[in-house]
C-alpha cells in the first residue's frame, strides 16, 4: 500500500475530452458514439489514463492476501468489543476477506486503516465502539474504488467508441 495512488481525477481525460467528443444522443441498446474522431493527442492521453488506472481495478492478488488479512485483523482489533479469539476470530476474518476479495488490495487496506483510525460512518457520525459489518466494509471499499473505476471505464469506452454517422 506504499505505492502512491494515481490522481483520482484528471480534468483533461475525465472531463474535457469526454465533453468534447461524446455524442449527446445514445440509441437504446447500442454503445454511445463519438461526434468526431479522437485527435492523436487525445488518444494518447486516454491510453495513458486507461493504463494508469488499470492496475487500480485488479482484485486481490495471491501475493497480497497476507497484507490484506493483516489490515483486516488490525481493523477488527481496534474495536474492543471484538472479543472473539481462536477459530471464531479466524472465521470472522476469513468471511470478511471472502466478501472483499473481488476488490483491489489497496482499497481494502486503505479502508481498513481509515476504519481503524476513525471508526465506521453510521447515522451521520463515526462510530468507534461497534465494529463494521461486512456489508459496511464492502460499501466503503466500493466507494474508494468507484471514482477510479468510473474514470477507467470512461477512458476505455472513449477509446473503443465508434464515430457517429449522421443519416439524412
Overview of this protein structure:
The protein is mainly alpha-helical. It folds into 2 domains: 11-57 and 150-160, no CATH class; 62-149, no CATH class. The protein is built from 6 helices and 2 strands; from the N terminus they run αααααββα. The protein has a two-stranded antiparallel sheet. Helix 2 (40-53) runs antiparallel to helix 6 (134-160).
Entry keywords:
single chain; 168 residues; mainly alpha; 2 domains; 6 helices; 56% helix; elongated
Give the structure's gist in a few sentences:
This protein is mostly helical. The chain has helices spanning 11-21, 40-53, 65-77, 86-100, 105-118, 134-160; strands spanning 120-122, 125-127. It has two domains: 11-57 and 150-160, no CATH class; 62-149, no CATH class.
Summarize the topology.
Blueprint (H helix, E strand, L loop, with lengths): L10 H11 L18 H14 L11 H13 L8 H15 L4 H14 L1 E3 L2 E3 L6 H27 L8
Antiparallel strand pairs: 1-2
- Low-pLDDT regions: none
Distance between the termini: 55 Å
Beta-strand residue percentage: under 5%
**Which structural class is indicated by helix and strand composition?**
mainly alpha
SSE sequence, one letter per element: HHHHHEEH
State the major sheet: 2 strands, antiparallel
Strand order of the largest sheet: 1-2
- The proportion of residues forming helix, as a percent range, comes to 55-70%
Mean pLDDT across residues: 92
Oligomer: single chain
Q: What general form does the structure show?
A: elongated
Helical segment tally? 6
Number of DSSP-assigned strands: 2
CA radius of gyration is 20 Å
Number of domains: 2
